[in-house]
Design a protein that fits this description.
single chain; 88 residues; alpha+beta; three-stranded antiparallel β-sheet; 3 helices; globular
Length: 88
């Protein structure tokens, strides 16, 4: 199953790297693509993996889904995630 999630705060390859690393930790994920131009994360996953689990991970690292609250705290988390992604 493939799920596309439009997200906020996506800025660069560092962000994409962190997103890929964190989402890949979930059981049942087969592949992850991050599109910087459309700010979309495409996840190929098994049916039993709930989309809400993927969205929760994205929110925790500062990339909430489009339409969700995007507080200053969320934006700050995304900058930290971005920096971590650039270093790894």
């Amino acid at each position: 199953m493939k799920t596309a999630i439009p997200i906020q705060n996506l800025k660069c390859g560092g962000c994409a790297s962190t997103i890929k690393n964190r989402i890949s930790e979930l059981n049942g994920v087969h592949s992850i693509e991050v599109n910087l131009e459309t700010s979309t994360v495409l996840v190929e996953h098994e049916m039993q993996l709930k989309i809400s689990e993927i969205k929760n991970v994205l929110r925790k690292i500062g990339y909430p889904e489009v339409g969700e609250a995007n507080s200053l705290g969320e934006k700050a988390k995304s900058f930290v995630s971005c920096a971590i992604g650039k270093l790894s």
